[in-house]
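Blinded run. Sample ID left blank on purpose so nobody reads anything into the name before looking at the predicted structure. Input follows.
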Amino acid sequence: MKHFLFFQLRNVCYNSYNYFSGALAKALQDKSCSITIFSGEREPLEAMERFVGQHFDAMVDFNSNLPKLKMEDDSYFLDQIDAPFFDIILDHPLYHHDMLKHPLCDFHVVCLDENHKTYIETYYPHIASVHVLPMTGEDMAPEHNGLPDKNIDLLFSGSYTPPEEVAASIENIPGFMGKITKKLIEDMKRDAGLTQEAALRAMLPELDEIVEELFPLHMQACFLADSYLRAWRREETLTALAKSGISMTVCGNGWRKSPLADYSNVSITDDMDFQDTFSYFRQAKITLNLMPEFKAGAHDRIYSAMLNKSLCLTDSSSMLKRQFTDDKELVFFPTDQPDILCETVGNLLLNDKKRIDITENGYRKAKAEHTWQKRGEEFLSITDHLIF
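Blinded prediction complete.
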C-alpha cells in the first residue's frame, strides 16, 4: 500500500488548489492508498518539521512554494523527507521559475500542457521527471440519467482583469524588457498559436541583451505578456458575445467593473468557492472555455462542463484535438474570429438536437476517461515508474 503526503498550504484561487489536492487525494485513497494531509489552515508551518526523516511514496503540492524552504543548516527541507516531491503546477512554468530552479534531490513536476513539459525538461535539467496530467471536476448529480434542467444559455466561469491595468504595468517595466514584452504581445496577437517561449526565441538573433543560458529568467521577466494576452482575449471574446445579444451568465471576481456590466443580457455572479461552480455548469446549456494561453494542454473547465452535461465550447489545442472530436463531443472555435463564435453559439442554442447530442457524447467521454478516478490511476502509474 502506497503512502502519500499532501501539502495544503494556500487557500487561493477560489480554493481551487485545495479542491484539486483533496480530489486527487481521495481518488488515491479509493485505490487503497494511505493519505496524510498537512493543512496550513489547521497547523502552523513549523509543524511540518515532524515529517523530517519519515518515508512516503511521494509528497504532493500544487503551485508549491516549498522547494525554496531551507533548514537551519541551509539544506532543503524537502530533501530531509524520504520521498520524491511532486509539484503540480497549474500555469505556465515561467510563473514558477523561482521554485523550479532549486536543485532538490528528487524533484518531479506535473503540468497541464505538453509544451510546458518540454520547456521544463529543457531549462531545468535537475528535475528528475516531468509529466502531463490535466485537472478535472465533479459530476454534481451522477444519479441523474437524463439532461438536467438548463436555465443558463451560456456560462463563463473565471475572473476578470482589466487589460488596460496590465498594459499600464508594462509601461512601468524599465529598459529593454518593456520593449520586448510589447513585441511579444504583438507577435502572439498576430499568431494565436504561438507560445511565448517560441515568440521570444524567434527574437533572440536580434537581441544582444538576452543570452540562452538565462532564457527562463528572461521568460519570467516578460510574464506580463502572458498576463495581458489572457486578460485581453477574455475581455474581447466576452464583450463580442455580450454585444451580439446572447443571454450569458458570468461568474467570478471583477466582472462588475468590466464592460459586460453595461449589458442587460449579461448576468454577473460574484466570487464563489471553486466547488460551487460545478452546480453552475450543470445549469448551463453551453459552457465557454478560453484557454489560458495553453497551446498543447487542457483546462479543468472543459471536463467539468462535460461531466455536468453542459456542451463545452472552447478554443482548441493539440491535446484537445487528440482527446475529442470537434462537433461530436465538444465544439471548437477560433479565438481570432468573434463573429464566428457568436454565430456558433446562436446556432447551438437554436438547434436543440445537435446541442444535446454533443452534450451527451461529451458526458460519456468524460465519464469514461476524465474523472478523478482516472486521474488517480494515472498519477499512481507515474509513481510506479519512478526509479529509486
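Unblinding after everyone has recorded impressions. Residues 152-163+227-370 form a domain with the Rossmann fold fold (CATH 3.40.50.2000).
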